[in-house]
Amino acid sequence: MEDPNYVLYVASYGDDTAAAAEDFKALKHVDEAAVVAAVVLDRTTDGKVDVKEHGGGLVGGGTVAGGAVGLVIGLFSPPLLAATAIGAAIGAGIGAIMKRHEEKKIGVDAEEWLPNGSSAIVAVVDDVYLDGIDSAITKAVKKTNKAIDKGDYDAIVQAMNEGGDAIIKAVDA
């Protein structure tokens, strides 16, 4: 069986948090194999990021919810994961994610896609289902997707596992 090709999918909603929540619910009805992990992020006007929703069938492959949250935030914008986890000792895991991001230019800029006072859905999806994902996300102001090669995905999963407990605690706090 061939390994899936993953895509980082980001849908931005401006200040319409209700629209983000509605699209997230619609995302749950897409084929179970489509979504590896997904979250709704809200960023306050002062820049604090809150993880509003995750799980509910959108965390696959045996990944624990907190680890999946860290994974999608880390792929979306490693500096955002660091900012979200301020005050937590998250060690080598976050450093490895940020290093991978800098070397490979994975991720999407948080300032553009999740500016202060806005919401976004961030998901890691199997590219085979990209059309279905795109059809389910109807209320977004803008959408983007970016291929994640298997090596990037595996390296970030490994970094999550190495710093997993601290990252989970930081993201769930």
Overview of this protein structure:
About 6% of the residues have low confidence. The chain is of the alpha+beta class and 173 residues long. The chain has a 5-stranded antiparallel β-sheet, with helices on both faces. It has one domain. The relative contact order is 0.29. The protein is 45% helix and 22% strand. Strand 2 and strand 3 form a beta hairpin. It is built from 8 helices and 5 strands, in the order E-H-E-E-H-H-H-H-E-H-E-H-H.
Keywords, please?
173 residues; alpha+beta; five-stranded antiparallel β-sheet; 8 helices; 5 strands; 22% strand; globular; DUF1269_membrane; transmembrane helix; transmembrane; membrane
Strand order of the largest sheet: 3-2-4-1-5
* Number of helical regions: 8
Residues in helices, as a percent range: 40-55%
User: What structural category do the secondary elements indicate?
Assistant: alpha+beta
Overall number of domains: 1
Secondary structure: elements and pairs:
Elements: E1 6-12, H1 17-27, E2 35-43, E3 49-54, H2 65-76, H3 78-84, H4 91-104, H5 110-113, E4 118-126, H6 130-136, E5 142-148, H7 150-162, H8 164-172
Antiparallel strand pairs: 1-4, 1-5, 2-3, 2-4
Helix pairs in contact: 2-3, 2-7, 2-8, 3-4, 4-7
Protein name: Putative membrane protein
Keywords: Membrane, Transmembrane, Transmembrane helix
Pfam family, one: DUF1269
Quickly describe the structure.
This is Putative membrane protein. Helix 2 packs across helix 7 and helix 2 (65-76) crosses helix 8. The protein is 45% helix and 22% strand.
